[in-house]
Amino acid sequence: MSKPVFARVVAVLTASALAFALAACGDNAPSPDLAAGVLAGGGDDTFAGEVAGSGASSQQSADEAWIAAFHAAHPSARISYDPAGSGAGVTAFLSGSVVWAGTDEPLSQSQVDRSRGVCARGTAFEVPVYATPIALAYNLPSLQEGGAGAHLHMDPTAVAQIFEGGITRWNDVRLARLNPGVQLPDLPITVVHRSDKSGTTKTLTSYLEAAAGPAWPHRPGENWPNEVGQGAKGTAGLVMTLSQAEGTFGYADAAQAVGLGTVALKVGGGFVTASAEGAAKAMDQSRFRDRSEGSLRQVLDVDYATREPDAYPLLLVSYDVVCRAYERDPNGRKAAFAKSWLTYLLSQEGQRASETNAGSAPLSPAVRQRVMSSVEAIEAS
């Protein structure tokens, strides 16, 4: 990542800073002209002033690219995103202090009900904007440097047994059977998990519940469910802990597991590494959740137990939360921004920028088309 996870991401208004941010997006970055064509809304003054969002740290790298492109089309807008975490972002949204929230976890019914205080008509809704593979990462330099152990093989049961404390050494016979020909070191395994509430933890525990069977006795949740290992706050804290200690094992957004070994998970008859391609294939196996009549919510249920060849099932789907219309928004500026912002994020150009900057799996055209039906219902004046 180009900035610390807990740093505040701000769209800088100077031309030099903007040029740098757009250059960071690579060849697939939307140019100012292209961004202006994709983004909905009026001229440069449409969103003049400050527009704030807050939420999932998983979206930070993607938001850097998105904010730069949006600012290219609307230079008078001062857009910021605070990657304070999913829970903090939704809380800020429900208090009315930000226009949108990023979250790795769909809204609870209680949160939907509370959103009537900030939404003028109906309730808040979430739409998927970002999907990324979650890597199971480890620090074993003797294997990683040689290449043979850069992607150790594990099945869901072995992963569960490590996180549950049943496998405690790297040369355990159960791991050796899955990795013939690899000289596993005689070292203790130190599990590192998130110490804070985390959508990434919810994704991992959902996968283990679905794929590992009785080897994982816990329900999915945002809090780590047992006393095994040590905690680290945030994605940055977890990755830093893994990087500093040999023998560690944890989980993080694959794009942030730089310099670490990552597990190839057993899926069906083969092993699949954490990649945007594998995540995209898993997303194709996912289904939208049924919703009540009139609801604009768009929630994807991932098939964590898929046996589809080449699909990587440990997939995190991240959402943006907005209102159809906002309270205390007499000119409709908030709603106009939300509609234009999401229209860009869900465009082909927006998804390319996210893939380049954050290693995400682009949402498929079919998913984007369905989600846009909710975005188009936002009542922008």
Description:
With 381 residues, this protein is of the alpha/beta class. The protein has 2 domains: 9-131 and 288-297 and 319-375, 3-Layer(aba) Sandwich (D-Maltodextrin-Binding Protein, domain 2), CATH 3.40.190; 134-280, D-Maltodextrin-Binding Protein, domain 2, CATH 3.40.190. It contains 14 helices and 15 strands. The strands form 3 sheets. Strands 1, 2, 3, 4, 5, 7, 8, 9, 10 and 15 form a 10-stranded mixed β-sheet that branches. α2 crosses α3 (60-73). The longest helix is centred in the N-terminal third of the chain and has 14 residues, at 60-73. The two termini are 37 Å apart. The relative contact order is 0.18.
Kindly list the characteristics that best describe this protein.
381 residues, D-Maltodextrin-Binding Protein, domain 2, ten-stranded mixed sheet, three-stranded mixed sheet, Phosphate-binding protein, ABC_phos-bd_PstS, Phosphate-bind_PstS, phosphate transport
Query: For the residues shown, what is the average pLDDT?
Result: 87
Q: Low-confidence runs (pLDDT<50, min 5 residues)?
A: 1-36
Helix percentage range: 25-40%
The main pleated sheet reads as:
10 strands, mixed
Number of beta strands: 15
The span between the termini is 37 Å
